Each structure stands twice: as C-alpha cells, then as structure tokens.
Amino acid sequence: MHKYSDIDYGTLFDMLLNSRRNYADKTAFIYRAAGSEFSVSYEKFYEDVVVLTRAFAARGIKRGSRVMLLSDNRYGWIVTDMALVALGAVSIPRGSDTPTIELEYILDHSSSEFLVIESGVLLKTHEEMLKNYKKLKAIFLIEGEKTHRWFNHVYSYNDLLEDRSLTQNELEEFAARHLHIQQDDLFTLIYTSGTTGVPKGVRLSHRNIMYNVRHIPQLIDLREADRWVSILPSWHIFERAVEYVALSQGCCTVYSTIKTFAADLEAYQPDMVATVPRLWESLHARVNNTLEKENPRRARIFRALVGISTTANRQRRILRDQLPVFEKSFFLLRWLGKLRACGYLLLLALPDRLAKSRLQAVQQKFGGQLRMAISGGGSLPPWLDEWIDAIGIRIVNAYGMTECAPAIAGRALNCETFNTLGLPVEGTELRITDEQGEPVAIGVEGEIQMRGDQLFTGYEENEEEDRKAFTPDGFFRTGDLGKLTLRGELVLTGRSKEIIVLASGENVDPSRIESTITRLPFVNDAVLVGQDKKGLGALVVPDFDKLREFAASRLNLIIESTEQLRGNHQVLEKVRAEMNRLLHSKKGFKPFEKLQNIAFLEGEFKPGEELTNTLKKKRHVIEKKYHELIGKLLK
Description:
Layout: H1 12-23, E1 27-33, E2 36-41, H2 42-58, E3 66-70, H3 75-87, E4 90-94, H4 100-109, E5 114-119, H5 120-125, H6 127-132, E6 138-143, E7 154-156, H7 157-160, H8 168-175, E8 186-192, E9 200-205, H9 206-219, E10 227-230, H10 237-248, E11 252-255, H11 261-268, E12 272-275, H12 277-294, H13 296-319, H14 331-363, E13 372-375, H15 382-390, E14 395-400, E15 407-410, E16 423-424, E17 429-433, E18 446-451, H16 463-469, E19 476-484, E20 490-495, E21 500-501, E22 507-508, H17 510-517, E23 523-529, E24 536-542, H18 544-555, H19 562-567, H20 569-582, E25 595-600, H21 619-625, H22 627-633
Parallel strand pairs: 1-11, 3-4, 3-5, 5-6, 6-7, 10-11, 10-12, 12-13, 13-14, 24-25
Antiparallel strand pairs: 1-2, 8-9, 14-15, 15-16, 17-18, 18-19, 19-20, 21-22, 23-24
C-alpha cells in the first residue's frame, strides 16, 4: 500500500490510470438497478470508461467539446464523467430537478454541443424546449431502450455500449491520452446560483480538483479497505470530490438513495460517509421521535445521557486545550478552569461511562463501523455538532465552496479544536479582512479570503463577477464572515454573500425569490432566511394598509390593530400560500425554494442599519438582529 506522499499525478485521467493499475481486482462501486445489486471492479469500471469514450468519440465529442450532463448520482454518472475527462471534453453537470428555463440558459451560456440525460422520462420533461434548441449535435440517454434511428440524434447507452470488444491497440491508444491532458486544462464548468438570479459558471481545472484529491486522504486517514455510502448528488462538487478521492485510494463507493439510505448504512456498514447537515438533522429527529413514540420515559433518559456525554466531552476539551482561543488569558485563570473541569469529570465519571455505553446503540444506525463522517455543503449548527460528538461519531465539519473544488478548511485529524472549522487545508492561504480589505486582528470578525491551487480560474463569460470575486493580489472573496483563533483555526460567523445554503446542501439565490414575492401589493420588502436550515422562511416588511385590505377581501377579517394583524395565523398562512403560488416550477423555481414559514416585521429596514447607503440589504446584520425570530420561524 502506497503512502499519500507517494501519489504524484497531475490530472484526473492520470488518477484513473493509476487506480486501475493498483486496484484492478478490488470493488470500486456497488449499485442497484432493476431490483438487482451489481458490484463493479476497478478493471470493469476502467473498461466501461474506455468503451463509452470510444462511443462518444465516434459521435463527435472531442477535446474541448462542451457536454451538458443532466443526471442524479448513479454508476452511469461517474462512467460518463471519466469518459469526458479522457476525451479532454468539458462537462457541465446538473441535477434532474433543474427547471427547463434554467437548463436552456445553461445550455446556451455554456455553448454546450452535446447533452447526456439520465432517462427518457427526463428527456420528455424538457422535450419541447430541446426541439426548438438547434445547437445540440447529439443527445445521449443513460437509461433507456435502444432509440437511435437514421437522421435521429438521440442515442441510448444501450445503443452505444452494445459492442464491448476492445483490441489491445484501442487500450493502448486510450492510455496514451494522458499525454494530451494538462493540469491547467478546463475539465468542468459547474453552474451555481448568482446574486442576480442568473447562474454563474465556475471554471475548474485539473489542478483545482487534484489539489483536493492529493490533500484530503491524509487529512482523514483514508484507507484502501474503506467503504463509502454515497447519498449526495454527484454533480455537487462536494460529493464529486469525495468520489474522486475514494477512487484515488482504491476505496469502494456504494450508491444509495434517500429512500434506502438508512437501510444501506446498516447493510453495507461504511467506514466513511459524506453528508450534509440536513441528514444529521434527520437522524437526530428520527432517533428522538422514535423514542418519544415508543416510550417517553426512555426518551427523557436518552436526552439526559446525551447531556451528560456533551458536558463531559466539553470538560475534557478544557483540560486538553481543545476549545477555540481568541486571546491569551492569564495563566492562573486557565489552570483554575482546568481544575474546575477536573472536578466535573470526577463527578461525571460513572454517569459518562454509562452514557457512552448506551449511546453506542445510535452508532449502529450507521452500520457500527463508521470511523469518520465528513459534513459539507453548509456548516453544522453547534447544537448538532455537539449531539453527533455526544453519541461518539468523529465528524469533520468542513468548509468549502464550488469555486475551491471545494476544500478550504476542515476539522480533520490534524485538528481537535471543537466548535471550529479547523485549520486551512495545506497550501491554502487564509486571511480575514475588514470592509476596506485590510487584515484584521485574531478574533476579530471579517470577510474570509483565500488563495491556493484549488482556487478556480474565473467565471464563464462573466468579467463583472470576476472583478467582484478577486482582490488585486489574487485572493478570492468568499463573501463569508469569520474569524481566526490564536492557533489559526477558522470559525464561521455569518455570510455576507447572498447565497443561502440549506441543510440539504442546496444553494438558493435569495434575490430572485425576494424580487418575486415583493410583487405582491402588500409586500414592501422581504429577506429570505434559511442558512443551514431544513427549508426557507421570509422576514416580510408589509404595507399594513394594503395587508388589511387583503385580509378583508380574501378572509373576511377586519383587523385594525397592527400588532394583531402581524400575529394573525390565518393572514400569515394565506400570505405564505400567495407567495408560494408565485414560486411555481413553471416559473423556474425548484421544490425546495418554497417558503415553509413567514413573519411580518414591525418596521422598515433603515439605511445605515439593515441597509447600506446604496440601500442594499446587509443580510448578516438582519440575520443577527432577528436571530431569535428566525430560530422560531425555522425550528
């Protein structure tokens, strides 16, 4: 088994060749199709990639071709992805829930020449638009019956992969492709939501993604025998990087679904799992709700055990200096704190031992073999971080962005400081700056800026956004707020950037939703909230006179008191329904962009407080001011 430092390949294609050479007989993927389970070795995976590469090349895909890949996670996705890598083509991935209007925009803006789509059903969803879209040279169906006819440019993989015979010459020619793929070649274009409502294309090179492939394995002590269970969308850069990392080390990836995830965890007993906060919230809710229904007394005992474990863990961290420190404290005060922690631990010794032995039962829901979990796509709320820690699961609370492919920092094995996002990944320059772009002192909040080999090369055809994104000395403005500890660990404190990341990992552009709901005559202004939450809510600044008229005409309610109007449940629900009526899929909105709850604010936003001098919303200020209200709104 090689050491991580021995890995020296520059592109994803080099990685593919290396993995086939080192792990040919090992299982690379496990997936289900048509009710059956399939195991794929690294050798078989490699051959599938070679066959699909040949078929794509025969139908015109070549170096530099732009190929839209519209599919959720499945084995066919990773084979397609690596075939495009082998050809030197540029993949433009997106999930199956992409609205037609957004798909059309991305196809056009990215200059896509080919479309790979998951199924015939999904093709039918976008059929009318695609008939009128004349720029595609061919469409490929991952899942579907043989469809090709003369003069028809739609091909099924069943058509393409019928001939699986490979000559020695073809295998040699395929391997020789590595000579023509360079580190700085563009390999993918990932469209992420923009602050104006228009998706932005993030340009990522082999250099960007291979930075992650080289550095992540040692941070999590990844082993050749490790098994992952995959649940996140493969097109999402977090899941995509995880799959590449697993491939680079000879690991096995099990493709799961939302419906089968819980059962698959117990059946496949993973060593590693990549998650988003929403999955942990679901586990937390499922465990507590199940206990409450079965036996309320047991539920109370369980919560008490979690509380004991949490308290004991915190006291240990005080003793071990594993909590964030932002300024030097007096020596005697530190030792008094440690002496107090020793006292607590003596009192909790037996209860904590009992708690941890009982809480091991929860770990069985992850198969009982889970060594580590990585959480990305949004920072874990502190209460959830502590709950996971209490039940005995080692979690890497990671911070990254699509623009960084994605790793920036993470509380990995090189950092045990709790309540932080850990240290920057090796080779990453991180700094915190004030509004003038000047570095701030340790412990002072400011914008997080970074620079490193994982940093993207810019947005596709968007010089204006490039100017906003980079400082004159080449640092990337993340738009997030944070501060550094004395030891250099990162603590995320808020988001100055517009994008909201839900607990499920989905990115939401608030400005587009806000501009839509403010079309209602009784809405003067609105701020979308939901960072790291299960769903979205809105803080609404209403026109109370028009809101009274709405209540009278639609609900037959005469309410003179502003306070009563603000708190009336019928009015709130009717207004929310009106807003969600506007956020329809036919208008290009996704299911998770509906509002779960709303609240009416008493006064308007003011310049210098919630607004800038140019009347732009200071989202982080608003979220801090209405923190308690948001918490009640989105429990």
